[in-house]
Amino acid sequence: MSNIPADLSYTAEHEWVTAPTADGVIRFGITDFAQDALGDVVYVQMPEAGTKIVAADVVGEVESTKSVSDIYAPLAGEVVGRNEALDADPSLINSDPYGEGWLVEVRLEDVASYATLLGAGEYEQQVG
Amino acid sequence: MTENYTALYEQHKEAGASFTDFGGWQMPLKYDSELAEHHAVRNAAGLFDLSHMGEVWVTGPDAAAFLDYALAGKLSAVVTGKAKYSLICAEDGGIIDDLISYRRGEEKYLVVPNAGNAKAVAAALTERASNFDVVVEDVSEGTSLIAVQGPKAEEILLRLVPVGQHSLVTELKYYAAVEVGLKVNGTEQQLLLARTGYTGEDGFEIYVPNAEAASLWKALLETGGGLGLIPAGLACRDSLRLEAGMPLYGNELSLEANAYAAGLGPVVSLAKESDFVGKAALTALKEAGAGSTTGRKLVGIKGLGRRAARGHYSVLKDGVVVGEVTSGQPSPTLGYPVAMAYVDVEHSEPGTVLEVDLRGKAEPFEVVALPFYKRRK
């Protein structure tokens, strides 16, 4: 069974999103289910800080030996940080998908948009 | 399609494998990390369950002449104890399968087709045998195949072989096979051991009756664990064979492909005296310059960036499609993307820089000689 922390929100594209901070910044990454399906990650391409992103647009990709999957913007906003540690060690996505394997931080255009994401229970139903 | 399970399925499940369908079989994709399994095979050893492969015995006074007719290679020239990589072709030269044939006696060969093609190959052999004094017997169902691959393979295997028979193993040449005693559960089993593989490393493949497969698997893991042997799944088998430049049926080889375009011209013996299935078509293809002056040719391409090409992606030259990728991924050993692709022969010279359409963005790839990876002897 894949691990689905209750305190995060999720997208149908198998990404997790933290609750917005006081200044409206969220962090997101790919779920345990997604990393397991993808296999050992060997390369990650992420948007640079300052990039404006639109919800559901492809903003990067996660590549494993056997497959590749797009990174989708979970919500609209501006990239304010990317996980530089992944450039040297992309396997952090496999070993700690919800922690050290995070991908990108985004200042939301509209903090209220966070409420449109899936709860842990809804996401769990989706991955069955 | 009915799902088949190998005699080692329970071992894989206990080891925590993820499974995938391959040729109608539930096979271990990986046990934990496919990258770790890949590196284990390159640096120590990996243990593979290949029981989905087929095994067909061809026996009788006409065995050699029959295989000369049924396959593209000259199997009659193989001496007893040796093996040969060959193709079984359709009349039009299309590839039904690529397979290894072991000569086990004057009138006895073991033919090993790929999992998904085993039934088609057995059927084609049976059909082609009608004018020959041979018996074609498909024993795939009762036979398991276990491979030990990697630089430590010989050392591991010797631990199960009685000392008196060590030289049978140490002197066994690549593409040769021998019956050898293997100690499993305290009893010695006479099993067919071949020095063959699909990883680019030294290694062995062991044919074992289903009833003994689990015991042999456990014995190998137990004795090889200290030398770094781990079970290895199909995910790493694919990355290993790609680095070694070996074709995979269904990707590089198919009924639509032909030996010359696939770079397997040397496997086809147009010179053998007898006729063989596909000979007329292959002769015409060769005379037309297939894979050398006309059509497409299978090449290795190496990514100049970080992003990998994948099967079916288009290969471009100046924005025009000149080929198609058949297999591709980031190479765990080499650290850059590698792929095989059919490209128009005029763009097939090593050193040519082409592009691959990676989901809408063209990235540069350079044509390189195969294999990508060659082990140090």
Characterise the protein shown here.
In chain A, the strands form two sheets. Chain A has a six-stranded antiparallel β-sheet with strand order 1-2-3-9-8-5. A three-stranded antiparallel β-sheet of chain A has the order 4-6-7. Chain A has helices at 32-38, 85-88, 92-95, 120-127, and strands spanning 9-10, 15-17, 25-30, 41-45, 52-53, 58-64, 68-72, 77-82, 104-108. Chain A is built from four helices and nine strands; from the N terminus they run βββαβββββααβα. Chain A has a single domain, classed as Beta Barrel (OB fold (Dihydrolipoamide Acetyltransferase, E2P)). Chain A has 128 residues and is an alpha+beta fold. Chain B is an alpha+beta fold. Among the domains of chain B are: 4-53 and 142-242, Gyrase A, domain 2, CATH 3.30.1360; 295-371, Elongation Factor Tu (Ef-tu), domain 3 (Beta Barrel), CATH 2.40.30.110. Chain B has a six-stranded mixed β-sheet, with helices on both faces. In chain B, strands 15-18-17-16-19-20 form a six-stranded antiparallel β-barrel. The longest helix of chain B is centred in the middle third of the chain and has 15 residues, at 210-224. The chains are: A alpha+beta (128), B alpha+beta (377). The A-B interface holds A 36, 39-40, 42-43, 45, 61, 63, 65-68, 70, 91, 94 and B 18, 30, 33-36, 38, 235, 238-239, 306-308, 310, 329-330, 332, 359.
CATH topology of chain A: OB fold (Dihydrolipoamide Acetyltransferase, E2P)
**Structural class computed from helices and strand pairing of chain B:** alpha+beta
Oligomer: heterodimer
Question: What's the total helix number of chain A?
Answer: 4
Relative strand content of chain A: 25-35%
Structural class of chain A: alpha+beta
Give a short overview.
The complex is a heterodimer of chains A (128) and B (377). By secondary structure, chain A is an alpha+beta fold. Chain A contains four helices and nine strands.
